Please model this.
Amino acid sequence: MAANPLVSIVGVDWGTTHRRAYAITGDGACAREISDSDGALACKGRFPAALDVALQALDVHGTGVVLAGMVGSALGWHEVPYVDSSVPVQDLAAHAMRVPDAAPGVSAIIIPGYRVRNAQGVPDVMRGEETQLLGAWALGHRSGWFVLPGTHSKWVELHEGRVVQLRTYMTGELFDLLSKHGTVAAAAGGVAPVWDETAFAEGVKAAGHHALSHQIFSVRARVVCKDMAASSTTAYLSGLLIGTELKDVLQGSAGTGPQGTFKLLGSPQLAAHYQTAAQHLGLSFDILDAKAAFVAAVHHIHLNWKPL
Amino acid sequence: MAANPLVSIVGVDWGTTHRRAYAITGDGACAREISDSDGALACKGRFPAALDVALQALDVHGTGVVLAGMVGSALGWHEVPYVDSSVPVQDLAAHAMRVPDAAPGVSAIIIPGYRVRNAQGVPDVMRGEETQLLGAWALGHRSGWFVLPGTHSKWVELHEGRVVQLRTYMTGELFDLLSKHGTVAAAAGGVAPVWDETAFAEGVKAAGHHALSHQIFSVRARVVCKDMAASSTTAYLSGLLIGTELKDVLQGSAGTGPQGTFKLLGSPQLAAHYQTAAQHLGLSFDILDAKAAFVAAVHHIHLNWKPL
Model:
């Protein structure tokens, strides 16, 4: 029996460097949540205890636990094999791994990630985002393009819960690398960046005209030629990188097309940038709450996957 | 009078971190050369003396000196305004800046770089490469696409010495950044890289199917999915980046086309990689000797620009 009878299940979004854990009631509400920096890397060698700490912090005992994210990678607790696109998101829990070494009384599963190959046979992978997508599906968003922006921005095309396409864009990581090192960082000249909406829009519009390895150099060229202030390089680079994602996805998506609506699962700050970029291209996003989606996914698993 | 009567002019390719200086005879041969790490950054505040040291090392006194490269940038000795594409390479010396503060008896000019805007109005710039191109022109290579590979790979389309297009690709810099930091470096797993020709070819072939910010992630995805050994990530990344340049240039070059021959000015090692990449795309490069081109450019200026 759960010590707190309201809580039916716990979900943990356990990433590389951070984790969030949610105590979820029988009607799918989030009763309590915690967030800490006990990511998969930090928990090496002490995963059972690390999970127990989270459950105690949530004041939960004896419920099932659903784990998602890098906790299921080679760097995590147990490596769970990826599933491929033959498994729709609503069936993910059937492919979960039961954790054999959780603390006594804890019944936990790890949700698998996806490995999806494109038309050229090149693979792409995700871990954690599949559970967000299951949540979107449970909330009624079952088809179309979804973007989960971040360090590694994931673009996923779903058709009734089936993953049709998966593409990772290293937008956040490239932004971070280029802002700290090399020519682009030097072009900023140590000046404090200001959020220049015009420069952001110019970056979005310029994106995709040529290869990114060329266009990134235009950050420097525009400053050298006095087309842009050094303080605006950050906004322009952000526009270039986000615009590149949008145009690359649009290019191969005749069905979705410029009239289509995309769905975004992410933080309000990133959502605002993507929304602005989309508007410059005549597109719009439905913004879905990332936490609500994760909670809905775990609730769906609780209702539908009896063995847990 | 020159102390060594054979030497008629000196050329210095003065980059950000390195420089090469050549003593050139009246018939255009290179009599002596030096190479050191007294690049423009290192010489701040002591350019006159730094030039004198080079001339003494070459045992040259009283000749004219042609300087090219970042020595003419805001970080250099004197900032020389860029010329635009209305000035053909064979007329560059007419737009050179005479150095007002060289050591007594030294008559030196700095060759300007180019600023060229593309069809969208976005600028690109080069300093130093224009002198290599003048040399190629002087050696009879006057039209077509030229690539000068390196940290910032320059692609230049010339038509009878006029710069039609200029595009910088940050190939070398991105290769260096991604090999040292972040997800791609981690995918290499600290394993010593081997030069895997098959992985290089796969990178070249994959390039251009999607935006580079997506394709770079495939380095990790391929390793995670065991499509590629960790030791091959370097070769695959190199293939992706070089292939991206080639395909991006081909895409907008109907006139040059896949049947065309490109000209490459660069080191033998980089030339070999570009030649291999080109072969995978059914293209070929004429390889021009970068030193011979620079020497030919300075000799051309000596013969044609009387005031020096």
About this structure: The two ends of chain B are 14 Å apart (CA to CA). The CA atoms of residues 212 and 244 of chain B lie 8 Å apart. Chain B touches chain A through 46 residues (CB under 8 Å). Residues 7-139 of chain B form a domain with the Nucleotidyltransferase; domain 5 fold (CATH 3.30.420.300).
